[in-house]
Amino acid sequence: MQLLDGILQRQPRAIARAISTVESGGSQASSLMHDVFSHTGKSLIIGITGSPGAGKSTLVDRLAGYYRQQNQTIGIIAVDPSSPFSGGAILGDRIRMQALGTDAGCFIRSMATRGNLGGLARATTDAVAILDAAGFDKVIVETVGVGQDEVDIVKTADVSIVVLVPGMGDDIQTIKAGIMEIGDIFVINKADRDGVLNTEREIESLLSIVERPDGWNPPIIKTVATQNQGLEEMANAIASYKQFTDVHPDNARRNAIAEQRIIELLRDRLLAIAIERGIGIDGIDQLAAQVAAKERDPHSVVDEIIEKSGISAK
Amino acid sequence: MQLLDGILQRQPRAIARAISTVESGGSQASSLMHDVFSHTGKSLIIGITGSPGAGKSTLVDRLAGYYRQQNQTIGIIAVDPSSPFSGGAILGDRIRMQALGTDAGCFIRSMATRGNLGGLARATTDAVAILDAAGFDKVIVETVGVGQDEVDIVKTADVSIVVLVPGMGDDIQTIKAGIMEIGDIFVINKADRDGVLNTEREIESLLSIVERPDGWNPPIIKTVATQNQGLEEMANAIASYKQFTDVHPDNARRNAIAEQRIIELLRDRLLAIAIERGIGIDGIDQLAAQVAAKERDPHSVVDEIIEKSGISAK
To answer: Does a structural domain hold residue A303?
Structure first.
């Protein structure tokens, strides 16, 4: 309860501890999130993804700066799942903290590691809910990659933004319809480079084949984040889409997001229960060594864990 | 058992049906994989990932062609998780099937969709095991993105290859240490473009900060896949790494892979059990609508599903 109070008072240390708790997962995380949930629903959640090298971090930092000038408070979660081993994201985090972190109206945290037992998408959604409960006006979730995890994370935002850069040439094809379909707003960053018009035309042609059930027409905004250009247009586009969804709520999308959230939570909780009751994390290590040595088959190992945990007894 | 026989006789239809079965997940998939497992372990599994636009599909097709000339049989799994909604990968699959698929020594299948209840990493590993059991000499797993899912998938291969292209400039930094650490071999494709030396130097400098516990020194191979250049060097590098690991097996890596496999399987199986016993897939839809409308909190919904499935009764 003390931790919840700290979150609601927007104390950076309490928020950081709460996010570490949800990263670890387990029953402590579950009971914390139970308490947090009733305080959520006020922040606007902005998801930002896009191609590698598109300058997303700078764009997010400058957009946060723009909002701060409007006296809006900002929470940022930077997700970097492509860095499973090294502390790359942590380092970047520290550098960004120096720029933004001295301001009490702005909180930034990166999430790089996915624990063996916890899904990154679930932990990120929990972290966003914590920032929401803490009362930040805007919560920005920024992801580095273009994989399924990133798409899952950005899809759950109130507004999803896809960032591209000029001069990707035919490589934009590889960004593909999948990521095009999640974009409520498209941003061409580094728009002072050659090839802006080509990129814009390519986005338009890809968008023309995507049919949105809600009838929204995603705008294409040009920014040069390093020079603070286009930030107002970007903020206005975000506000416009928010207004649009207030009038035309996309219930199918909201339901799909909620379903995904339930399933993520359920998977994590069940796994924790089975390991706790069935075998313990040391037991997993031993079984893994047997599977690696081809002494046992992973499917029969899983049968055994489920049996031992008492789940299949019913 | 008929399906298993078809797999062992390398019948394309049986293989395709088996992969569809593991994509759906559930107990049918589990019992099939149980039978399949004892026939695995003979193929060399080659994982290929890298930056968008690096020409991975062409490289894989041409490498497969090279192996076919050596009378090696080839199975290919192309993973495209960035395409969650549209049939992009399926279309690409058909085009590639026309080029490769008339040859009985070559099987290609793309996996684009991740079902609500099934993990893509788990389904991909199952599909690779099916091709292994079918007796293909080489099984190539190719992923499109650079997210966590892709890293997880490629990490489980016997040989992991990272493909880059010249002229990525400072964008290579965004590919990051995470993906550098999984590469046993690096390939610079489109090596007839400007900037090859720069890219090579960048890879070398990134590799110099990665410490490999096994002492292997990842080679950097240059290819122009569209002109069949460098394929022999690539195949030789793959053979060299295979020889190296035969002499210096990396048990820690093998154990970590097996542990991840067990956990993936366990998560999928538990989720299927809980939904089947606890609530049904229609029940999830109803609860999701309540959560979306903020009438209920997802954590208490998950508590309820676990309670109803009898798992928490113990």
So the answer is: yes
Q: Using CB atoms, pick whichever of B30, B270, B299 lies closest to residue A265.
A: B299
Q: Which residues of B touch A129 (CB under 8 A)?
A: none
Using CA atoms, how far apart are residues A139 and A44, in angstroms rounded to an integer?
6
Q: Is the separation of the CB atoms in A166 and B168 below 8 Å?
A: no
Pick from B34, B270, B302: CB nearest A271: B270
- Kindly state whether residues B286 and B149 are assigned to the same domain: no
Whether B269 sits inside 8 A of A302 (CB atoms) is: yes
Q: What is the pTM of this model?
A: 0.69
Give the pLDDT confidence score for residue A99 in this predicted structure. Answer: 59
Q: Of A217, A247, A277, at which residue does a domain stop?
A: A247
Q: Is B11 an interface residue toward A (CB < 8 Å)?
A: no
What does DSSP say about strands A220-222 and A185-188: parallel, antiparallel, or unpaired?
A: parallel
Q: Which of A38, A18, A20, A22 is nearest to A30 (CA)?
A: A22
Residue A252 maps to a domain: no
Domain count within chain B? 2
| Whether residue B58 sits in one domain with residue B129 | yes
Any CB–CB contact under 8 A between B279 and chain A? no
Residues A234 and A271 in one domain: no
Mean pLDDT of chain A: 82
**CB B107, CB B141: distance < 8 Å:** no
Cα A56 from chain centroid? 13
CB-closest option in B151, B255, B300 to A288: B255
Q: Is residue B195 within 8 Å of residue B175, measured between CB atoms?
A: no
Q: What is the DSSP letter of A67?
A: H
Chain B CB within 8 Å of residue A8 CB? no
Beta-carbon contacts of residue A203 (< 8 Å; ≥ 6 apart):
A164, A172, A180, A186, A188, A220
Which residues of A fall within a CB distance of 8 Å from B275?
266
And the tokens for A7?
């979150």
Q: Look at A85 and B177 and tell me if their CB atoms are within 8 Å.
A: yes
Burial grade of A314 (CB within 10 A; 0-12, 13-18, 19 or more): exposed
What's the whole-number mean pLDDT along residues B225-250?
Answer: 95
**Are B34 and A150 within 8 A, CB to CB?**
no
Spatial separation of the C-alpha atoms in residues B276 and A82, rounded to whole Å: 34
A-chain residue closest to B282, CA distance? A259
Task: Pick the range with the lowest mean pLDDT from A173-187, A188-202, B27-41.
Answer: A173-187
Most A-contacting residue of B174, B206, B245 (CB-CB within 10 A), to test interface: B174
Q: Pick from A275, A268, A258: which is nearest to A28 by CA?
A: A268
| pLDDT above 80: residue B282 | no
